[in-house]
Amino acid sequence: MNAELARAIDIIEGADLEGEGQEVLRSQLLDFCHSHDDALYRSCLTGHLTGSALIVDPQTSRTLLIHHRKLERWLQPGGHVDGNGDLGAAALREAEEETGIAGLELLRPAIDIDVHSIPARGDEPAHLHLDVRFAVVAPPDAVVKINHESLDARWVGADDPDGLVTSDELHRLIRRGLAVVNKR
Question: Pick from 21, 34, 120, 125: CA 20 to 30 A from residue 45's CA?
């Protein structure tokens, strides 16, 4: 096992998880890492580790969601780690690229894990994203500038009056992220 994958395993083992099914998902990710030396790379066609960031504005208790162009869903920023075993650093990089917000603050340890299917697209077969999620604090007066990967971005409160949060796992992540940021 290479050092980067060992680092990712340490991060997964140290995640501060809460909620139904989270320990089962942790075990699934750890098993995957131990059976796939290439788990940090997109070339692992079965699936690969990803990192994502729930960006929280502590002044308003809102989280930032992006409307993902390819998946056509409202999600937290995140993506491929491309060999980087520091999953938090990868999540922060993706958050900065996708939102254009400077001065984001990554909170450790990871707060949530999710495994979801990505549909086939072009030459890329359907595969799994084994996602390790971090709370990220937005600076005061953060200005969002989405990139080409997104159609839109919106700050969403826990009440979600626009109905953008359509999955239980995203509801879970938002509740957990707001609680972690509010406790610090």
Answer: 21
Q: Which amino acid is at 2?
A: N
Q: How far is CA 8 from CA 33, 34, 76, 90, 142, in A?
A: 9, 11, 20, 11, 29
Which tokens sit at 76? Answer: 């937290």
Domains by residue range for the chain, with CATH: 3-183 (3.90.79.10)
> Hunting for tokens 């917000």 — which residue is that?
101
pLDDT digits (tens, 9 = 90+) for 88-142: 999 999 999 999 999 999 999 999 999 999 889 888 899 999 999 999 999 998 9
The pTM score is: 0.95
CA proximity to 79, closest of 62, 97, 105: 97
Residue 128 to residue 43: CA distance in whole angstroms: 12
